[in-house]
Design a protein that fits this description.
globular; about 80 residues; GMP Synthetase, Chain A, domain 3
Amino acid sequence: MADLKETLYDIARAIVDNPEEVTILDTEDGKDVKLVLSVAEGDMGKVIGRNGKNAKAIRTVMKAVAASDGKRVTVDIR
């Protein structure tokens, strides 16, 4: 799971203006992994993107990474 968390962390830090404020909480239940991404309030728009395109792209990449490990992932952005 550290690989999933690290991948999301790297993606989020590349997008935002305040990379030091990126935090990720993770929980794992068997093959299901839940990642909760928190960023600075001013960076929320950058992470979500116009019409949610960035958020959808992040979730798609994370699902592909998780599938290679035989897991399922959900990413919540807060």
